[in-house]
Amino acid sequence: MTIDGPSGTGKSTVSRAAATELGLPHLDTGAFYRAATVAALRAGANLDDAAEVADLVSQATMDQVDGAMFLDGEDVSEEIRGPDVTAAVSKVAANPEVRKLLVSRQRSWVTAHGGRAVVEGRDIGTVVFPSATLKIFLDARPEVRAARRAGETGEHHVSVLEDLERRDHLDSTRVASPLTVPEEAIVIDTSDLGFDEVVAMVVGLVKDRSV
After folding, report:
1. Angle at 83 between CA 81 and CA 84, to 5 degrees
2. What are phi and psi of 65, to 5 degrees?
3. Are 18 and 200 in contact (CB under 8 A)?
4. Strand 68-71 and strand 186-189: pairing?
């Protein structure tokens, strides 16, 4: 199952909870791009130099184990959520060569975990697993998404909203694998839904497809 959508829609928490309830492995593909960003920032790379960044990413090892993200064997789960990474990740994620490298690794991860998983991201149903039997796209009104993110980070609502709008624009207009609603995806607007309600809807959709 693929779950796509922009930041602040509940994508990560919903997909993790649904995976647990369904007994399936969970893959947060965004963490791979954040780990790639950590690798580039640590090396002092010019993020506008696509070849340099792609070369660094090609040499780095990445894995996700029980929800933790590892870069060259080091747990970087906390570092990838830092403000420096958040500010730079959209640029790294827009790099076509980086996307090609990481899509391959994400597919390999799912294969290594039995071929069935709950996979979340921004291009999962369109590029990474276009043949998935169930595609879900979570969305929410911008002001709701900003309020959720501000509640998590403690940042000011207005600055969070501006950052979300900036990332939405970058993610939806990039040439390589832009954020779009996959064909045949079921769109769930989470603006006025509680967490448990969304999880129940997702789990129900999976079980309906399994009948």
Report:
1. 105
2. -130, 115
3. no
4. unpaired
Angle between helix 157-173 and 142-153 (nearest 10): 120
What is the number of H-type helices and E-type strands within the chain? 8, 8
- CA 11/CA 18 separation, integer angstroms: 10
Question: What tens digit of pLDDT does each residue of 109-161 get?
Answer: 999 999 999 999 988 999 999 999 999 999 999 999 998 878 777 777 778 88
| Cα–chain center distance at 70 | 16
SS (H, E, C) 92-141: HHCCHHHHHHHHHHHHHHHHHCCCCCEEEECCHHHHHCCCCCCEEEEECC
Residue 203's pLDDT band, with cuts at 50, 70 and 90, is: very high
Q: What is the Cα–Cα distance from 72 to 176, expressed in whole angstroms?
A: 26
Both structure tokens of 112: 């290594």
Residues in the chain: 211
Amino acid code (one letter) for 126: T
Asked if 124 and 2 count as a contact pair (C-beta separation under 8 A), the reply is: yes
Residue with tokens 């693929």: 2
- Predicted TM-score (pTM) of the model is 0.87
Confidence grade of residue 167 (pLDDT, cut at 50, 70, 90): confident
Q: Choose among 137, 167, 135, 134: nearest CA to 7.
A: 167
Please state, for a pLDDT cut of 90, what percent of the chain lies above it: 75
Q: Taking a C-beta distance cutoff of 8 angstroms, is the pair 9, 140 a contact?
A: yes
In which residue are the tokens 């403000």 written? 83
